[in-house]
Amino acid sequence: MFGVLRQRFEAWVTRGQQPARQPVRLERRRIYILPTRQGYAFALLLLVLFLWSINYSNSMGFAFTFLLSAVALNSMWRAHNNLLDLVVRPGGVEPAFAGQDVQFGYRLDNPDPEPRYGVALQWRDRPPCHVDVPARGSATVVLAVPAGRRGRLRPGRLRVQTRFPLGLLQPWSWVEFEQDCLVYPRPRGGRPLPAAMAGGAGSGLGEQGAGSEDYAGFRPYAPGDSPRRIAWKSATRTDHLLVKRFTDQARPELWLDWRLLGTEPVEPRLEQLCQWVLKAESAGCEYGLRLPGREIPPAHGDVQRRRCLEALALFAGGGG
Amino acid sequence: MRWSWKNRSRRTKPAKPPEAPLSSLALAWLLAALVLAAAPHAVELPVWLSALFAVVAGWRGFIALRGLSLPPRGLLLALALLAGAGVLIDYRTLFGRDAGVALMVAMAACKLLETGGLRDGVVLVFLGYLLVMSNLLYSQEILMVAYLFAAVLVMLAAQALIHRPHSGLRGWAPLRLAGGMVLQAIPVMLVLFILFPRIPGPLWGLPKDAYKGRTGLSDEMMPGTVSELVRSDTVAFRARFAAATPPPNQRYWRGPVLWRFDGRRWSRHEELPANTPTPFVAEGAAVDYSVILEPSNRRWLFALDLPASLPPRAGMTASFQLLRDQPINEVYRYEMRSYPHYRTGELTAAERFRGLQLPARGDPRARALAAQWRERMTRPEDRVGAALALFREQAFYYTLTPPLLGPDSVDDFLFRTRQGFCEHYASAFVFLMRAAGVPARVVTGYQGGETNDLGGYFIVRQSDAHAWAEVWLAERGWARVDPTAAVAPGRVREGLYAALADPGLLPFLARGGGGEYEWLRQLALSWDSLNNSWNEWALAYGPDRQKEFLSGLGFGPVDWAEMTVAMTVALGGFGLLAVVWRWGQRGARDPVARAWQRFCARLARRGLARGAHEGPLDFTERVAASRPELAAPVREIGRLYALLRYGPTGSPADVRQLRRRVGQFRL
Fold first, then answer.
1. B177–A55: do the CB atoms touch at under 8 Å?
2. How close A20 gets to chain B, by Cα (Å)?
3. For residue A171, what are the domain limits?
């Protein structure tokens, strides 16, 4: 009930706020401020001190009560200033697997000659990450955002907040960036890696068994082919780029094929494929990935791994 | 699905992670602040409790230093119960001012040992503020207030540090922060102090011991009461005269008037105060003055004979005694007007009856002597003269240490011991007058006082306490007679120290000027002058003084609504000032932003406003597209601004370049 109200309020307050492509400067009109629970307790304390002063007609008691009240007001101003003019910009982000946390980096810039203490970035109900921003300097915060599903993850709205100096008040601001991160499927599944096959065998859907050892003629160029294999000599004679074909008998090649997992639903299949990619990569063999409508020729290395995982993350088909 | 409690309980939120413990730095500041706040209480707390607090503070520090674990809950509970029981045994109650403070200190000690995370830290900080406040109930003197101010600074530093994310405050930074906050808070505090509408207290019953340990005149007089009081050089009140200070023989500060005598004890007759001054015929000029009364926990106000005005919330009895509606428990300042020369009106039948009342029996020799005078002298004035002649001519002594008196105290004094202090003389004199058929009463109060030339005011101490008599004479009404002056004329002229047979018993400051330690006395007077200003301006600023002060500013009478409006306006002004200040700071500090804002404002006037979502480069591109003739300078400004604002570092040359470009930019 309360949560719903809060969401409504958030939506109302941030209406018209577009996700920013630029760094965001926290301006006066986008900073909100409310007392914390401690702040309400402090107000109660002030009331007690005030009544106490009246009851004892204690002049210095009044002075003390008013001093603390004035300090509380001052702390409101300081808390607000602790966020004011702070510049938030999105930083680097690394892809992650579903079920893990994505680490979104942000940089906070402080244009003031005074340091800012205890500035926090918070994603939804996750514990906030605190950082001190030095005077005329910057600091980085890494926010862990749980990656639930594969695909593109947008962190959405973030809270920038602080409780400095006395913890009585909490000013905050919402920022949202045009920013996303790739989430790979969760590597999961019980099946062993499929057997590696020699070149030419299999479904014939592509350059199966292509190797680097023995020359085996030409074929037309396809995007993704290594420039080293392009037959530059023949390219001068024809309009088409041709690629030299080699077959490799010595190294087995591995096809991670969607159809090998024929009976399962889409997501478990992708998860199994993802696990295979990781296994194949760590086993050191060349592997290719075959998805409906997409095929990645066998290769090895970080680039191949990322290409395969990206394809799995963004896969949007398979009759699902 | 069937709904059940089991399902519901599974949906509850996960428990919050345990709070991070306080950092040892925060704990160190917190301990220091609490020790500072509790230390002044050591004077009135039982020794065991002070020791307990000190030991616990040390222990907690040791635990933090060595990274040991906190004592188990059971031990804490036992400690709390023991401390509570100790307070109960020591004070025989858990309520009241002293026991309350003791409990608070005990609570702070127990909480210290339990302190783990932020929440405990907050509780301790709040307890600390309450401890600071409780110190003010015992003393509001300048030194104490300065000390507590320091304690509050440390407490604020601790309050900032108990928050883990603020542990970037290193070294003296927390104290600097607290100092900065307090400095900026002081103007607001002053506005609140001056303008916040004050409500006269108390709102509800105060504990019995709320104002324990205050010295002053009581409403009873027995042999020894005044001579005990004069051994204290505590200030009773200070006065400031509008014109010349009246001569010594007119400095009779009227206090409780005592009518009833039971053979040993004089006491007040309960008279209802009226809310208009009691009328009398003034002869001669008025004396105007203000009195700054120290708290006495009594209702009476002191005024020179005879008072002709009424301070707010005060009334006057038929015997010219001023009474306030509430006991004076704060420094209280009031304006007065008196007439030193006067004639009062007729004696009512009730007054005559009370003025002639005597105990049924006792003191036969005094009665016989008075009866003799009554037979021999027809005029009451002569009977008065006869009594004064008795004191003057017989061997009476004025002393602070008179011998003890027997059951017939008046006889014993008049015919045997003949040594006494003012209460003995006043008591015997009034007894004789009544027995001789002259209506008479005892007046207690203060006589004399010393001028503080530094502050231009008058100090009246407890050592100036005095008792004298009033007799009713047909031509003059109630007339003051000071029998002590007959025995020791110097008492009125030069003060007590000069008049006493045994002045060594008097406290240092009551001994008057001159002598070996004059410089020390002068020093004490300078300090007193400072205290007087403090009293007059800070401590006496209550509901009445507030109205008086604000009305005196020239706006006429001020009520609480106007005060509230004035206060709100002033606070709003401060708020505006804070915003403007911050703005100016930003402009001065950030020439880049200022130049950019100027540039944007110029474009906005021509309908090319920058959208909130637009970055500088997007914006300048859009402008360049819509106004191709401006493309070159606009793009350059955008590039420079983006470089300075979001680039790794901008050089001062770039800043100059940007400002020059913006300056030259024409539409």
1. no
2. 6
3. 2-184
